[in-house]
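Exercise 3.2. Students should predict the tertiary structure of the chain below and write it as structure tokens, then compare their answer with the key that follows.

Predict this chain's 3D structure.
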Amino acid sequence: MSASGRKPDRREAGSRRSKLVAAATVLGAAAIVVTIAALPSAVEPVPPAEPVPVNVTVQRVEPVPELADTFTLTGVVQPRVVVSVSAEVAGRIEAYGTRVQEARWPANALAAGSPIVEGQPVTQGD
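Answer key:
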């Protein structure tokens, strides 16, 4: 009998039984997973790797007098891709400013505050 004093019908009893079976199945599966995870694994130590012997011979390079050290080849240089670069805003550069920071490259250096002239490299912030 139930708490309300009436006898549970078959649907309620079957539903309760199926819920208990499902819960027991889930708990059993979880217990199996935990048991398998807790089992010690057989870990074999990895032996240290030994260097593989390499058969190497050394030979001196001697110049061949019949061959020239330099030679000239003729050919045509062609680009892989031709691109067109255009400004996003149409306009004309009327003046260059002054450098914000020093510009350095292997051949030269330009001090900060010097005027930017056509053909010179610019740095970030110029």
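Discussion points: The chain has a mean pLDDT of 79. Residues 10-38 form the longest helix (29 residues).
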